[in-house]
Structure formats: structure tokens, C-alpha cells
Amino acid sequence: KGQKDRKEAFGLALLQVAIKVSGSRGASANPVIVEAMESPNRFVQQFRYDNAPTVAEGGESPESPALKLWVQFDAPAVDALIREAGMPVWGRVRPSVLVLVAVESAGGRELLSSDDVGGWAEFIQRAADGRAVPLVLPLMDLEDRARLRASDVWAGFEDNVRGAAERYQSEGVLLGRIYEQLPNFWEARWRLLLEDGRHEWVDQGETLDVVLLAGVHESADRLASRFGGFTGTTVASGVELSVTGIRSLRDYARTLQYLGSLDEISRVDITNVNAGGVSFRVDARGGRETVRQIIALGNILAEDGQGGLNAGLSYRLLP
User: Fold this and answer.
1) Residue 90 lies in a domain
2) Do 152 and 222 belong to one domain?
3) Contact 209, 123 (CB under 8 A)
């Protein structure tokens, strides 16, 4: 609880938040972020200490329970810091990715699932939470077992995998093929399938957890590169869009609140209201394509066709 230790903990927590918000591990080497870590108190809104669960030797409770520091930062101040560092600010709406990992062992090949007894599912989830990227592991219930096979993932049969993945409504699929080549030498071959193509890479390490962690981090890096925000130098531009299916004041308020909640949109103006719907003009960093991309990740508006490059975007409000 000493002031020096608390300051150091604040700095490390600020770095974790910077990595989450920017989507980039490069924050740890950015001089602006590193300097801010030396004086992190100005970004802290509130903090508290919670008791962390610990067990002493012999299974008995320790006399002095460990403490866990909880910190809440000033979000606008952190966003401004990241933009000052020349890094992008990635919004809260992020693509979900279904993780299909086949691990080969002496007992054969098996898919990691959300209820994996080996603890690997929890390990992957903790790593994904550290990057604020929603990674989803399959349930491997009867429905999954009828459609998902470790052999399909191992062979990289994309059509089979994509069909089975429709159940999870994810924006991407991460395929992993992991095996121990030699004692204490693991290799993971990864393939990230997105709407606009695939990304492949290989990770190697001494243990399974090393290559799993590397796969999660590389996936997050590539997702941030594809879906991430824009730097402070990116100028907001106006985008016209219309929304149909607005039949009540509640629908109108829901649509307006949704558009205003998107981090990439800085302003929302209403340009027209008629019986068929409402037209808006929004200011967004990255312009039209950013608006299209970020709305596609949500489940509030569905694209309802679009015109040429200079035409407005058209959506319908989902129930």
C-alpha cells in the first residue's frame, strides 16, 4: 500500500489499458506512454484494494491476506494520451472470433472447448480479456460434435469449419494446429479467417501455453490492424445514412442512442424524418467505410442495400 508501490502499480495498469484501447502491444515501447507511466496519478479517477484469494502452505488461510488493486482511469484522458502517442483508439465494439484449436498428443487429436478440464480454455480467455478481444471457444455439445471434427481443423477444411461456425455468429474463425515436435519444443500453425481473406503464421515455444498465448496476441494484433481505430491525426468526415423500421419514439431513441454510443462517431445530426424512417448525418473518423464496418459488428442495424460510392448508407432497425 506504499505510495511508491501504488504509483508503480498505477503505471503498469495504465499500460494494460493503453494496450487494450489501442489494440497494440507497441504501447509498451511508445515514449509518450512510457513517460505517462512515470506520472500515472493524473489519469486515475478512483482506486481501491480488494482481498485476493490466497492459500497458504498446508491449505490454511494466510494470516495476512494478499491485496488486489482495482483502478479506474479517466477514459477521455486515456484516449487523448493514446492519440497524443500517435496510436489508434479502438472502439468498444470489436469483432468476435471463434477459436478452433486442435491439439495432438499421445492420445490423439482433440479440439479445445469452453469446458476444457485441462484449464486451457480459461487460459485463452484470460489472455483474450487482457487484449479486450472477444474470443469464443466451442461448446462441443451434441450439435458441435455432429458438425465439428478435430480432423477438419487439423486439415484446414475451411468450408466445413465455416459452416459449423455459423452457430456462433462470429466475425472470424481462428484455426490452430498444435503439436509437440520434440521434447519441450511445441509448434502452432495458425490461420485467421476473416471476411476479406485469411492470415497465416507459425509460433514455436517450449510449452503449450507459450504457443497458445502467442497465438492469442498475434490474433489480437491482426484484428486491431484490420478493425482498429484511427490515430489523432485522422480527420472526422460526414457520412449520410438512413434507417427504416423506426415506428415509435422508443425505436427512434434506441437508434439515436446506438449511433451516439459508437466511439468512432463524434456527432449525430438528424436530417430528415418521414413515415419510412429517419435520415442522419454522422461525423466519423475514417468516414463512410468506418461507419459501415463498425455497424456490421453490432446487432442493432442491418444493412439494407447501398448505392454508389457517393450515396448514403441504408439500414433497417432490427427488433
Assistant:
1) no
2) yes
3) yes
Q: Are residues 275 and 195 in the same domain?
A: no
Q: How far is 179 from 182, CA to CA, in rounded Å?
A: 9
Residue 285 lies in a domain: yes
In a domain, 118, yes or no: yes
Which triple of cell numbers denotes residue 81?
494520451
Please say which residue of 188, 209, 227 terminates a domain: 227
Phi and psi of 287, rounded to 5°? 75, -150
Which residues share a beta bridge with 303?
Answer: 315
pLDDT for 260-286, tens place per residue?
A: 999 889 899 999 998 878 999 999 888
pTM: predicted TM-score of the whole model, two decimal places: 0.79
What is the DSSP annotation of 204-230? EESSHHHHHHHHHHHHHHHHHHHH---
Contacts of 72 by beta carbon, 8 Å cutoff, 6+ apart = 44, 45, 46, 47
Number of domains in the chain: 3
The three cell numbers locating residue 293: 464496418
Q: Does residue 91 belong to any structural domain of this protein?
A: no
Name the residue type at position 157. F
* pLDDT digit string, tens, across residues 67-105: 889 999 999 999 999 999 999 888 888 999 999 999 998
DSSP 127-192: HHHHHT--EE----SHHHHHH--HHHHHHT-HHHHHHHHGGGT-SEEEEEEEEEEETTEEEEEEEE
